[in-house]
Each structure stands twice: as C-alpha cells, then as structure tokens.
Amino acid sequence: MTKIDIINLVSDDTGLSKVKAEEAVETIIQTIKESLQNGESVILRRFGSFQVREKNARVGRNPKTGQEAPISARRVVRFKAGKHFKDAVNGADVKFH
Questions:
Q1: Are 25 and 17 in contact (CB under 8 A)?
Q2: What is the distance between the alpha carbons of residues 3 and 78, in angstroms, rounded to a whole number?
C-alpha cells in the first residue's frame, strides 16, 4: 500500500475530495515528523507509538572485507505496535474506533 492508496481510501470513506484527503494525510504525517524531530513520542491509541532513540557512535565492521569502519552517532525512529494493532495483523476481529 502506498500513500496515494491511503489518500484514496480516506477520500472514499469520508466523502472528502482527493485534494482535501491528501491535505489531511500530509498534515498527519508532517505532525508526526515534527513531533519526532523535537524528541517527542507520538502515541496513537489502539495503533502504536513512535519514539526517537539515540544511537551512540561506534566502530562497525564491513562484512565483505572485515575492515573496521566508524559509525557516527544518530537518532533512529522506533515503532512499537499496540495490542489492538498486533491482534488485527494476526487475524483477530478488532475494531479501531
């Protein structure tokens, strides 16, 4: 599924025009990005949560040559699925409302 598929579903389910549905989806994605950039967690009940984790600098190894290479410190996004989301993925009849 792509972002355009989600936009089409939002448009069909809500009766919004495709342009308005795209604006809504883009606003949600942008809000999540900005929150994570500011170091805030994003919690979507019955779906899951997004958190920013700090990774320390370290020395890694090139698997092909075995040569050591520095890996710089960075921030990574972690998604933790909520119980309802996990149940839905595993085939349980769960409603997200």
A1: no
A2: 20
